[in-house]
Amino acid sequence: MDYRGIIALGEYILQGNQINYEDSLRLTKVATDDVPLLAAFANKIRQQFAGNRVDMCGLVSARSGMCSEDCKFCAQSVYHSTNAPVYDLLSTKEITMSAQKAEREGAKRISLVTSGKGMNNDPDFEKIITAIECIMDKTDLRVCANLGTLTLSQAQTLAASGIKRYAHNLETSKNFYPTVCTTHSYEERLATIHAAKAAGMELCTGGIIGMGESWSDRIDFAFALRQLDVTSIPINILNPIKGTSFEDIIPPTPLDIIKAFAIFRFILPDKIIRPAGGRELNLRDMQGQLMLSGANGLIIGNYLTFSGRDTAADFQMVQDAGLIPTTTYKD
Amino acid sequence: MTNYDLIFILGKKILDGQAITFDEAIALTTIEATDIPILLGVANKIREKFTGSYVDTCQILNARSGGCSENCKFCAQSVHHDVDVDVYPLMNEDDIIKAAQKAEAEHAYRFCVITAGCGMEGDADFAKIIDAIKRIGTETSLQRCCSLGTLEENHVSALKEAGITRYHHNLETSESYFKEICTSHTYQERIDTIKRVKAAGLEVCSGGIIGMGETWRQRIELAFTLKELNVDSIPINVLNPIKGTALENQEKLNPMEILQTFAIFRLILPTKILRYAGGRERNLGELVPLGFLSGINGMLLGNYLTTQGRGAEQDIRTVNDLGLTLLEN
């Protein structure tokens, strides 16, 4: 596809139409020197359908390591031998202090994350609810939760505690998923997403690129997210952690990453597309370009098992790109 | 017609081998913020088509610093300013050679010997500079450039004979704004030196500084003057307002406006080397790499005359990350 194809598709979306699968796949074949133009249209689409605000959230890793699942990228899996921290659920006080720290650093939204497959028969679930209520009491943060598999009744309990958005990744395409995880199914992930939706929560659902998947896997993945109508899409770029099964995978180039984000924006014009872990490692100093390629969210501060960068740098980057960090969720 | 239609119409015109007019360039200065990345993308295509994916790198050496008689308002080396800047006479030849060797080790393609001062007329250092330039030619494989201020014809021929392939002499800004920036010598004097150098068959590296309070129109005037002079390389500095200079309180340009300027320069000068120079780190922050996707295809590596750069290593990695190729000797 030459640049006129990019313009035609860009305009088609700007007019309010949906891109189809075949055209999305054609976009993956644009010439390298046309990637900035593709990104520029993604940027226009982002502005028209999602505005100029950047949703910036922090993570609180409330329970870490010892996960029973075998996700090949994950430093917290018991199948891997890594240096990731291992600890039981933090106390409500500790969790609240972490949340307060994120708030001080500028986050308006945090996600409370626990390692493990999910909440089924998990005695920590009640304590987590208490911690969530405490954060809501002590801060002005918008609180999201990321606790793995949920039953419908657990989803309803979370929603009743004030959680408006549940984070649960699909990780990758259905086709590529068995390469990434064998201990639970794609369908199980979909079931949790549907349970959270049924309980009235928004979804923060994305995954990881750069695990060896093909471009058509990435497009499949974006279309699955479009079909699920999730609100926020965190996109990690593989950080190949030593000791994990994916430790030797060579991540994609910065321009390929930018291309992937731009195409996601073409497919998902009005969603929050959120660069997440691995952006520092893999984009290096090209993160600013990413903010002009369709992204409108960021995970700031540290990730679950590795460090991010200074949050002030992210706020400056967002502003330099002419975008506006979200300052409040109070309506 | 939307704003970005204009960008594509003009972009296509240039990709088809035609030139844009002054008024068309002016129209590109008024596009909406949301269309700036599209303009950058088009500039990137034009860069790729007319100059390929090569990046021309250079390191500069401040071989004689400070004490300059001229009153350029931006300059830390002017005697008219009270700036905490190094002041030293011409470095000895061995030290100049060492600096050149270091530049070569850091993968610079060119090496530029720079001296503070108005020019070479009656300057006793000129002969020493010629000797140093000759020796750089025997001891390194660097392309040799220099920036010695105003030159007369005899200087130009001596430099050419010594192996200089490209002479650096900025216009700094447009003719209409120059008198706001410098009154101790004229714009014409600068143009005369450039013409003398061109006439001798040497290449010219000439650009300037944006963000000194000039208007968009004046920036476009500068680009068209450079085009008319057919200069080969255009360094674009973004003002780094140094404390103690007359421009110390000058307001910063918006990063997107800086990138827009690069892109418009690329559209006006499709085949030339647009060279990143001083002030980019301070003014663009994390958006520095975007310059290379906005029409830039050259850069100063390492430090500037009186300010620090971000380090050759990081710049080289950025270029590699973008799939561009460093020119090598």
3D architecture notes:
The complex is a heterodimer of chains A (331) and B (329). Chain A is an alpha/beta fold and 331 residues long. Chain A is 41% helix and 14% strand. Chain A has helices spanning 3-14, 21-27, 35-50, 92-104, 124-138, 152-160, 177-180, 186-198, 215-228, 254-267, 279-283, 287-291, 311-320, and strands at 53-63, 109-114, 142-146, 165-167, 202-204, 207-209, 232-237, 272-275, 297-300, 324-325. In chain A, helix 3 (35-50) runs parallel beside helix 10 (254-267) and helix 4 (92-104) runs parallel beside helix 5. The longest helix of chain A is centred in the N-terminal third of the chain and has 16 residues, at 35-50. Chain A is globular. In chain A, 56% of the residues are buried. Chain B has a single domain (3-326), classed as TIM Barrel, CATH 3.20.20.70. Chain B is 41% helix and 14% strand. In chain B, strands 1, 2, 3, 4, 5, 6, 7, 8, 9 and 10 form a ten-stranded parallel β-sheet that branches. Chain A binds chain B through residues 3, 7, 32-34, 36-41, 43-44, 47, 253-255, 284-289, 292, 313, 316-317, 320-322, and chain B through 4, 8, 33-35, 37-38, 40-42, 44-45, 47-49, 53, 254-256, 284-290, 293-294, 314, 317-318, 321-323.
